Amino acid sequence: MTSGIKSSSDLTSLRQQLLDLFCQLAYQSGDFVLSSGQKSSYYINGKQVTLHPQGALAIGRLLLSMLPEDTQAVAGLTLGADPIVSAVSVISALENRPIPALIVRKEAKGHGTKAYVEGPNLPDGAKVVVLEDVVTTGQSAMKAVERLRQAGYTVEEVISLVDRKQGGEEFYQSVGLKFSAVFGIEEIQERDKQLKV
């Protein structure tokens, strides 16, 4: 709908809003153990932003702008990616570029089709981009990549809202996946300090 300069300035402003939401709602200092088992001096609870109305809107618009033109669906591992893929799918419909969302279960459904992947049926080989809230080692989104490939889809890229810079990008490169993130952790930490002054 929007194009050119207005669009990129809109995206810059949305990115700044999203950065501030991550600092205000999701970023916490302290002693934490991550899902990877690693200890950390900070934690990012992405759901505080991905389930926030303005957060979801900004995420949908920003991630849609990062998707390759030939993307046929977005997908992610439940539960962290559920609001992200939903936001992108809704915004894609508003932008007349409808992209369905797929949700990848951690365990196969115990009844019915016993499927790992929920969502519209797509043609074999459909190009799917995996979305994630926070990447540390990269293993979580990799489960989604593997399940989607087993279901017959083509997955070549992972996009995360936040990269903790703890090996995720290098891991994806080592298995031939493209990877990008909206924010690196250092940008969130820097902005968090500015907001606390």
TrEMBL record:
Example GO molecular function: orotate phosphoribosyltransferase activity
Gene3D superfamilies to which the protein is assigned, alphabetical: 3.40.50.2020
Catalytic activity: orotidine 5'-phosphate + diphosphate = orotate + 5-phospho-alpha-D-ribose 1-diphosphate
Co-factor(s): Mg(2+)
InterPro entries listed in its UniProt record: OPRT (IPR023031), Or_phspho_trans_dom (IPR004467), PRTase-like (IPR029057), PRTase_dom (IPR000836)
Domain Phosphoribosyltransferase residue range list: 84-170
EC annotation from Swiss-Prot or TrEMBL: 2.4.2.10
Pathway(s) of this molecule: Pyrimidine metabolism; UMP biosynthesis via de novo pathway; UMP from orotate: step 1/2
Keywords from the named record: Glycosyltransferase, Magnesium, Pyrimidine biosynthesis, Transferase
Record-listed orotate binding positions: T136, R164
Binding site for 5-phospho-alpha-D-ribose 1-diphosphate: R105, K106, K109, H111, E132, D133, V134, V135, T136, T137, G138, Q139, S140
Annotated family: Belongs to the purine/pyrimidine phosphoribosyltransferase family. PyrE subfamily.
Protein function: Catalyzes the transfer of a ribosyl phosphate group from 5-phosphoribose 1-diphosphate to orotate, leading to the formation of orotidine monophosphate (OMP).
Binding partners and assembly: Homodimer.
Protein name, as recorded: Orotate phosphoribosyltransferase
Source lineage: Bacteria, Bacillati, Cyanobacteriota, Cyanophyceae, Oscillatoriophycideae
Gene that this sequence comes from: pyrE
